[in-house]
């Protein structure tokens, strides 16, 4: 039973390739945090994170220092990603960057074709669509 749960968690956390994460990290430099986690904890902000991910796709969440006394930032990031069906792009300082495509994970979780060019073109197209959506 434990192996099955661990397998599901690994599949969920491996939806994006390192190349896609790198492009999303570059994109995230220009955005500011839209959700702050305070002393009341993660549970209070999950609905807001879901709403922001639905609207924007790529968001930053800022963790206040008072929260880090009780909980580790990696645990917070994993809980947010699991509860919101999103992917952790990066954790830098007290800021977590999350990504969830607006159209769903189907295009990311399907079996990849061996043709590298098609895979690269898909991520470039997705990146450009996100970039134009922000501007």
UniProtKB/TrEMBL annotation:
Entry keyword RNA-binding: yes
Any GO MF annotation of the entry: RNA binding
Annotated Pfam families: CRS1_YhbY (PF01985)
Keywords: RNA-binding
Position of the signal peptide: none
Matching InterPro entries: RNA-binding_CRM (IPR001890), RNA-binding_domain (IPR051925), RNA-binding_YhbY (IPR017924), YhbY-like_sf (IPR035920)
Domain of life per record: Archaea
Domain CRM: 14-111
NCBIfam families from the UniProt entry: RNA_bind_YhbY
Name of the protein in its database record: CRM domain-containing protein
Species whose genome carries this gene: Methanotorris formicicus Mc-S-70
